[in-house]
C-alpha cells in the first residue's frame, strides 16, 4: 500500500462537496481509504486515526490523503484532481465572459428578487453575511453553527429593529410556505405553526404531526439559544407574532430546551396575548418527551392519538447476553438529548449533549468510556470542517462498528433523519453497517432506530424503514418510543408500551385566549415580516451548494453567492466590525458625502501662499517618511527640490542637507494636498486650487510637468529644473489669469465626460486634458503676451496634464467623507515609494501602512522589472474615489499602456463592485450600460473577499535621477487592510479597545486631511 | 405534433392547489398553446389551460411555477398532465410543492371595505385605461349593483377587448374574485351564472381564470389587493402592483375589485364579512 498526503493552500470547497469527492476517490480501484477535507483539527485527528502522518496544515488548507495500492495511487490522485476541478464553479459560463459572480451577500442582493437569505458558511464568517442580508431588508435563515452568542444577540437586535426575522443560528431547520430550508421534512400542510429552538426536535414534532394527519402551516427555527438568558427569546417572540397573523395557523407549538427564566416568562406573556393556543414542548428533566408533547397538541385539537408508525424485523433480537450498556449514536442533537433523558433511569449516561455533557471528541472517536453512552455526532466538536452527520455518515459508522464489537454493548440506538438536504439514501450505508455490527456480535445485538421522516420525504419513510428492518433493526418514528425500547432491552426487562419514566407530567398548554390584542404599534413591523409567510419565496443561498440544490429540487427560485473564506484579517475582527450598529448608517453617510462633493478649479497659486508653506518645508507623497527610509525616486525628487529652491548648489550638497534634516518633510495629505509620484511640493511651485461648493472643502495639487525625465519620477537634471522654473514663472501665472478670467471650472463635469471618451482619470487623461484646454483656451489667448503659444503647446503636449486636477477633485470628495465614527470606508490610499498607507473614515488620521509593492506592467525602452521602484504617489486617490483602475472598463485602450487585455479591463471594474459600498451615478461607464463607477472602498468587504483595490500607475526608476521607466498595475498590500480592520474592530462600541486609542500597527500622525 | 427527441430534462415545479384535481388525476393529453419569455401555456381538449411560469411572472391560479427556468416548447407540441406531473417531450415537470391561490383573508368590516373602495376610484381615468373607456358603461356599472343582472353583464363583457385575456373578462374576473373571496351572500349562484354564460364566448385562458375565480382562486397580485382591502393597509401600493400585471389586465382586474366592493356594500351587509363563501 502507498500513502499520499498533500496540503493545498488557497483552495476552498464546502464540506458536502468534499465528502462527495472523498467518496468518489475511495470508490476508485485499489483505494483502501481516502480523506479529502479542509485541514481542521477534527479532520487532522481523523487522518491520524487512519494511520497517516499528520502534515503541517491549518483549517484554510485543503487536505488530500489517499491510501491505495502502489499501482493504483496515480489513478486515484487523478480522480481526486478531476473531482476537485469539477467543484470549481465555472464562473464565466452562466453570466458571460467578464462577469464577476457575487462574492458577498451584499453584492448579490443588489438588484436581487430574493426575499430571504439562507446562510450556511462556517460560523465565524456567518455574521457578516447575515448582517448584509438584514441591511438589505431581507429575512435571514442562519443555518451556520459556531456563531458567538453576543453576535447572535447583535444580529437579532438588528433584525427586530428592521422588522425582519432572523432564524437560527445553529438550528438547521425551517419550513416556510412548504419550502424546506436547511434540514426539513416534507410535511403535509395543516393548521399547526411550529416555533423551534431545536432542529431535530422540531423535525420530530412535525413528522409526528404529519403521521397524525394534521400537518403544519410553517416551521420557524429560531436558533438553539433563543430561549437562553442572553438572547431573551427575541426571535421566538417575533415568530409567535408572525404566526399569529398568519391565516393558515390555528395553533402554535414551541419546541425548545427548557427556557431561561426571563425568556420563558416573556414567551408566556406574548403567548397569552396572541389570540390562539400556544403549546410549549420543552425537552428537559421533569417535562414530557416530544412524542407526549405532540400528543397533547393533538388532544387539544381534538385529534385522536394515532398509533405511531414502526417497522419491526422478521425476527426481533433479544437482549445480548452479558451486555449491560446502552450505546446511542445520534445525528440529531435534540433526539440525542431526548434519548439521554429517557435513558437516565438506567444509571449514569455519558454524553456530549445536555446539562451533564462530559464527553470530548477524542474520547468519542477512540476511547471506551464506561457507562451508558449517548453521542450527538452533529455537535460542534464533531463537525468542524466536516459535513453534518445527516449528510456524512462516516464518523458515526466507524463508531457503530467499534461499539458493536464491544461485548459490554447490550443494544445500539441510532437515529436517522430524513428530509431535504439530508443523505439521499441513508439506509444504503447504514443497513450494511447494521448487518455487519450484528454479525460481529454473533447476531445477538439488538439495534433500534429512531427514523424521523415522512412518507413524502425524498427518501420515503417506508422505503428507509423496510431497508433498515431488513438489516435486523427495529424502526420507530417516535424517538421516545425507540429509546424506551432500547432502555427496555438494556435492562432486559420485557418490552413494554407503557412509559417506564415516572411522572408523566401534564404538558404545559397555554389556555387559548379569545381576545387578540392587535397592538397597532408593531402592526407595521408585523405586516412587513408577514410577507415572509405570504409572498412567494425566493432565496439567496450562501454556503453549502447542497442547500441551494435542495431549493431547486423544491421549485423554489434560488440565487447563489460565490462565497469563499475571508482571505485577510482576523475572523473575529470581521465579525465585530460587521455587527457594529453604527456601520451601515456611517457608511451610507460617508458614501453620500463623497458622492455629493463637487470640485471646481477656482485659482492657481504659489504653494508658499496657498499652503502657508514655510521655507525649508517640503511636502511629499504617501504616508509620513524620513530621508533615511526614502527610496531612490523620492530622494531624487527631494534633491531636485532643494536645488530648485536654491538651498544648495550641487546634488551632493543637497543630499547632505537632506541627510542632516535641514528640510522638514510632511505628507501632502496632511496639507489638503495631493501630488503624483514623489509628489514633492516646494514653496515656489504653483498649485491648482479646487473648492467643493457642497461642503466648503479646499484641495491643492501641483502642475503636471509631463512624462519622461521629470522631478516627480525622481529626475533632477538641469533641464528638469529649468522646466520647473519656467512653470513657476510663466505657466502658473498664465493659468491663474485664465482661470480667474474664466471663473470656476467644473472639474467633476470634465471627469464625468472623460469617462465617456476613453479616459480612466489616472493613467489616461487625454480627453480630460483637451477638455480643460478647450475650457481655458479663450482666456489664455485673450490674455495675450509673448508666451501664450508656449503655454498652449505645453498643456496640449502633455496627455497627463489633467491628472493633477482629477487628483485634487478626488481628494475633495474623500475629505468630505472623513471622520465618521463607525464607517469602514477608505478615504485615502497613498504611497511614498517605501510604504503603502491607507486611511479610513472611522479611524481618524491614522495611517495603516505596509511595504509598497513593485507594479507589474510595461516598460519604456530598455528598462525592465529590475529597474522599477516600489509603488509611489498620491495618485491612488483616483482609485479611492472610484476612478483609475476602478474605471478601467471605461478606458479599454489603457491596456496598451499598463499591460493586460481588454477582458482584464472589463473584469477588473466588475470585480471592484464587490468591494465598494456603492456606485457613482455621475461617473457612468458606457460599456457597462452606463453603470456608475464602483465607489467607496469598504475595508470590511476587502477583508471578506480578499479582493484588493486595483491601481493603474506609473513606474519610477529605483535609482535617484532616472525618471519614469514604465507604467503598470499594482495592488495595495493586504496588511494595510488587515490593520485597518483591526483598528475598526477595536473602536466598535463595547470592545475592549474602544477607548484605548489607536491600534497597534499604526503610524500616528498629527494633522488631518481636511 | 410530436416533440423532437432530446436529452431528458427534469424541472421540479410548485403547483397551484387549484390544479390539484387536474395534476394528480389520471394522465390526460395537452398541447402547447403558447410559449414566450417567462411563460408556457398548455391546453387540454376541454379548453382548460395550465400555465408554466418563471418565478417572476404574475402567479396565475392555473399555473405551476418553476424555480429555475421555463421550457422553450414548440407551439403545438404534445404532452400530458396528471399523475402528479407534466410531461412534454423529453421534459418532465414533477410537482414537488403546492401553493394556495386563494388569498388568506382575515374577517373584516364593511366600513373598512368602503374605505378601500374609495381608494380604488378613478381607475377608468388611469393611463392604461383608454381601453376601459371602450367597455359598455351600463354593463360595467351594472356589476356594482347589489343584485346585478349577471347574464346581461357577462354577455356584454365576456370576450370583449384585445389580448389573451380580453379586458372585459379581466373586469369580470376581478369582480367575481372579490365576491367569492369576500363572501358575498350570492357568490355561489353568481359564480355559476358567470361560468355558464361566459362558456364559449371568450378565450380558453380567460375562461380558465373565470372558473378559478368562481372558486375564490386568483392571480397573486389580485389576492394581495384583496388582502390590503380587508386589512385597510397598503391599498395604493397593492393597486399599483396589480396594475403591473399584463398590459391592461391588472387595471381591468382592479376595476373589477372596486365594482365588487360596491356590490358588497349594497348587498345585505353582514356585520362582519366572512373569509369567503367558497368552502376552503
Could you give the topology of this structure?
The complex is a heterodimer of chains A (1010) and B (280).
Chain A: E1 2-8, H1 15-26, E2 31-38, H2 41-49, E3 62-68, H3 73-87, H4 91-95, H5 105-109, E4 116-119, H6 123-135, E5 139-142, H7 149-161, E6 166-167, E7 173-176, E8 179-182, E9 189-196, H8 199-211, E10 216-221, H9 234-244, E11 251-256, H10 261-272, E12 278-282, H11 290-300, E13 310-311, E14 325-330, H12 333-343, E15 349-351, H13 361-366, E16 372-376, H14 394-404, E17 409-417, H15 426-440, E18 447-452, H16 461-470, E19 473-476, H17 479-490, E20 508-509, H18 523-534, E21 539-542, H19 545-553, E22 558-560, H20 571-578, H21 583-596, E23 600-606, H22 607-610, E24 617-620, H23 632-644, H24 651-659, E25 664-667, E26 673-674, E27 686-691, E28 698-702, H25 718-742, E29 745-746, H26 747-756, H27 766-783, H28 788-796, H29 803-816, E30 826-832, E31 835-840, E32 847-851, E33 856-859, E34 872-873, H30 877-880, H31 895-898, H32 902-912, E35 916-925, E36 931-937, H33 939-945, E37 951-956, E38 964-970, H34 974-986, E39 1002-1003
Parallel strand pairs in A: 4-5, 4-21, 5-6, 9-10, 9-11, 11-12, 14-16, 14-17, 15-16, 17-18, 18-19, 21-22, 24-25, 26-28
Antiparallel strand pairs in A: 1-3, 2-3, 7-8, 12-20, 13-19, 23-27, 23-29, 27-28, 30-31, 30-34, 31-32, 32-39, 33-38, 35-36, 37-38
Helix pairs in contact in A: 1-3, 6-7, 6-20, 8-11, 9-10, 9-18, 12-17, 14-15, 15-16, 20-34, 21-29, 23-24, 23-25, 25-27, 26-27, 27-28, 33-34
Chain B: E1 9-10, E2 13-16, H1 20-24, E3 28-36, E4 39-44, E5 49-53, E6 63-66, E7 78-82, E8 85-88, E9 91-99, H2 110-119, H3 130-133, H4 137-142, H5 150-157, H6 167-182, H7 187-198, H8 204-214, H9 220-231, H10 235-243, H11 249-266
Parallel strand pairs in B: 1-9, 2-9, 5-6
Antiparallel strand pairs in B: 2-6, 3-4, 3-7, 4-5, 7-8, 8-9
Helix pairs in contact in B: 2-9, 2-11, 5-7, 6-7, 6-8, 6-11, 7-8, 9-10, 9-11, 10-11
